[in-house]
Fold Simple sugar transport system substrate-binding protein.
Amino acid sequence: MMNKSGTRVLATLMVAAGVMLCSTFSHAADKLVLGFAQVGAESEWRTANTESIKSSAKEAGVDLKFSDAQQKQENQIKAIRSYIAQKVDVIAFSPVVESGWEPVLREAKAAKIPVILTDRAIKVSDDSLYTAFIGSDFLEEGRRGGRWLEDHYKGAQGPINIAELQGTVGSAPAIDRHNGLIEVIKSDDRFKIIASQSGDFTRAGGKQVMEAMLKSYGKQIQVVYSHNDDMAIGAIQAIEEAGLKPGKDIVIVSFDATKGGFQAMMAGKMNVSVECSPLLGPQLMETAKLVAAGKSVPKRIVTKETVFPMETAAAAFPSRKY
Ligand code: GZL
């Protein structure tokens, strides 16, 4: 027969075991907790990307913690640190720029929280700091823009002067859409990039930069190569205000293939938009669940995309999802 104190000790141990089991089970029974640090809300593409992530989390029964960094890296790092402190199951983010992530990713690794990159890539010396990267091949997107130019100007005389509207400085899409173009046109001396400046992926930025380029180069500009539809739409406004016809006097090459891009193409003001799908939510939720369950996942998951010349815009528009 156990004495009173022995019974008390046994009771305490059973309660402690119960709490532990319950917390383990309650955690297992709880939803997957995913902390997502978004770049911001700078473009139509980003809005569609955020919508895809939020709706997919709901559909997948994932408890999503979401933050908007207003395109500032320090805000994304703060958000990742807060997810580490909250002990979320998985962290995911779309890195606003390629560099500067090692310290905070080492903290996530030390906390045994897996990290998934979506949309944009990062440059790190140790790629064990992230588990997977789900996103487009921006270099190939740039090559597609360059190949469209080569086809469009087949047989034409040079010079063909290009004004380039770059995306966020240091971001993977800006670096690679530029490099992909160069890869294709570098051996064709008709093409010359006479101006190149960042509009930070926003409509206002695209308009501002285009106004300045038109002041400096005017009708010397034959092509605008814009790293996204939002900046291209801003540039189109500036071109029209300068009394020129976008899509005719100045050829417009753009990226994303958003609704705004399709509307500009159907109005004859944009010549082509290279697709870059923001609909990464379903793949992210599926990958997060596999990672949380300790399953292996591909390090690199490339989204499937195509190119929409203006001639195909009207037929394709009704089935577009963003
Ligand atoms: C590309 C994405 C870019 C889009 C822009 O995957 O990172 O950021 O091209 C967006 O529209 O702002």
In short: The domain at 138-276 is CATH 3.40.50.2300 (Rossmann fold).
